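Record U6 snRNA-associated Sm-like protein LSm5, 138 aa.
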Amino acid sequence: MVVGWLGLRRRRESAPTNIAATISQRRLNFANGGKGKSKPKVLQSLSLTHGMAHNPSQLLPSELIDRCIGSKIWVIMKGDKELVGTLKGFDVYVNMVLEDVTEYEITAEGRRITKLDQILLNGNNIAILVPGGSPDPE
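=>
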């Protein structure tokens, strides 16, 4: 985790510091949105990138998924399943709730299509997300 790594970095000061106090102060500053002391350089660069939301290639992945809420999304799962549906929500683990879902499954007999009203996807099984996309029709 980046924050933990930054918390253990040593400062360039001549006076000895209390490492535990420094770590807890940095965590507190991070939790408060960086108020107080200046942010570490890595977090400063992330903040600069966050401000450039006009270019989709410069969005953080969670911001891109957040922009897809309420729109169609194509989810390619690990294994032989693909789903197309309307994204209703997600969490930090990328577990997703989709509505009006069409599930495409590749079987030995061919492609099986299943319609579902709603589904909760485990984020561990998601391989690729395609906003606004859909699989090629046969």
